[in-house]
Amino acid sequence: MSQQLPENPLGRTHSVGIVTPQTQHFSAPVVLASGRELRDFDIVYETYGELNRERSNAVLICHALSGHHHAAGYHSADDKKPGWWDDYIGPGKPIDTRHFFVVSLNNIGGCHGSTGPTSIDPETGKPWGPDFPGLRCRDWVRTQHGLMLALGIPHWAAIIGGSLGAMQAMRWTLEYPDLVRHCVVIASAMKLSAQNIAFNEIARQAITADPNFHAGRYIELGVIPAQGLALARMVGHITYLSAAGMMEKFGRDLRVGDFDLGNDNLVEFQVQSYLRYQGDAFSKAFDANTYILMTHALDYFDLARQYDDDPVRAFEQAQSKFLVISFSSDWRFSPARSREIANALIAAKRTVSYVEIDSPHGHDAFLVPDARYEAVFTAYMQKIRAELN
Amino acid sequence: MRFDLTLIQNWIGNGARVLDLGCGDGTLLAALRDNKQVDGLGVEIDANDITHCIARGINVIEQDLNASLENFRSASFDAVVMTLALQALRYPHRVLDEMLRIGREGIVTFPNFGHWRARGYLVGRGRMPVSKFLPYTWYDTPNIHFCTVRDFEALCAEKNIRIINRAMIGGNDSQNALAQAWPNLFAVTAVYHIGR
Fold it and tell me: Which residue from A219, A314, A322, B159 has the fewest beta carbons nearer than 10 Å?
């Protein structure tokens, strides 16, 4: 913490400082929801804050589609950007690391160090690639439970997630009801809509149609389907923003060219260049097979499927208390989806609060600083802290 | 605590499940939790009030009472409370029906527009009453459906709503007796315990 840190882009609050990812190896095989077995695997994770003597202050952060373990702080003093949820995790922030012991991991099937398609399949000695077992949300919950035991955590004071991360958090409350005191569900849904699945299918098609995809064996051939992955990301990115938010951010501003009469020069809008940049950056940092695997898991998730499609019956399993947050301009997981969660919890007579934050930032709003969101989140976390024994 | 809230506490059983429509900053539900071990849920639309509720551990749902309440299942609460919100609703009579669908009993409080001061203001000045208690001008007010004690009881009769109990609050302590004797003239706030 004493090192010179890069300036927090917001310059508002403190950072957890330099953090170092750790790896937990699991040598016992795990049988996945698909019936296939993963003989052994690694989970990469980071922790922020200290586990208290009673071991009652642990908080699990579940990441979304393209997330990973690096949620807060910096890996080195040269890092330009902090972890993906640095605005919400740190000393004096809603998830206050002065009081909570925060665990953030990269799920299996990921491509940031935990065992996934880019890892070596011990049976063949080659990267798993497309042969990595298909995963469901519950497989992540199960392996997160393994990490919890390995870290000597008896229960979670809270499990917190946005989007796909919140699906894991909700699944936890049904699979391990007595191990979750609070569940914070942000910008999520109990299952995807046909429109959501359709967007994911376009993303997958973009990847598999890339000539460099080679049926998923691209690593062995030393190439990456960068164009397909970039296109997938661009489609996804549009669904994370709102129409009004994009207009506000980019308008019809031009990056190159003009519309003067009498010439036929190239015109490029700012939004084009932004999307291309996002796509390019993502294609260099993310694995295509992981993207396919993660979007499938997202599509398959249906909280109430095994409870006769009755979300009330599902949530009757839960013992934790819930905070459900949605954002007004989120059309990927709209407020109506979050209200369904809250209503099922009310009908199941669970303890729940529901808040709808007015924001122009679409689905991405859960990552963006916002005074009201922070106030509600902070108030809820402080209440959890007051309950710690 | 506001006097009407103190009265309400006496009508709610220990450990009851209570829904508070327009719960504000959660004052009533916090008192019910602390004094009566009530399992409470509030419904509110004001952002600051919602944050206050969460900060004091009161469960609250952000929802507009003027939109539907159909997300609350029938007979899922022991009591549904609504304090000083009736006059601000688009369709007060429908919300009363909803209260008695969702809860076994309802408790409603509202400002009595038949109070002698309001009458005096209207008769004397010929203008819509503005007072310390109801400080809004007619054109800029959340209160769009004022009623008197007599109006409310007529509505209850029309809708077959049973009045289990009622209490009247006067302008000050010494006027509470007057308010009990002649509610329509002396009650500033009317408090009704209703059922079907």
Answer: B159
